[in-house]
Specification:
Layout: H1 2-26, H2 33-38, H3 40-61, H4 67-90, H5 104-124
Amino acid sequence: MVANNRTLFGVALVGAVLVTGAASAAGLPEKAPNFQKNHPRQTEVLNRVDHERNRVNNLYKQGKITAEQRNQLLGQIHSVRKEDYSDAKANSPNGTVRSGYITKDQQRVMNQQENQINGEIRQDLGK
């Protein structure tokens, strides 16, 4: 009976994790397959933002950057995401992020900002 309870608990735990993951991914427009297909410029920018955020968090966990450096970099990274959402909303026919887009020039500016953030990360690491 104990083995059955453990199995049920394990199945319930996995189900809860899957549902939570799906719910959090559903909240981000760039995680939806149709969005990725219809908005390749935004998908590229936002995937890069996610990669940079993960990189900064991992560097902090490894002790390679300080909490202050981490917070400063994450603030800059978050501002690029906010800029993307703001530009998409401004270019939307109905004022929503999901139906909007970013232009090539807007993408270029955000990529330059991300390049600058990467340079700061390298500088913080002493490379």
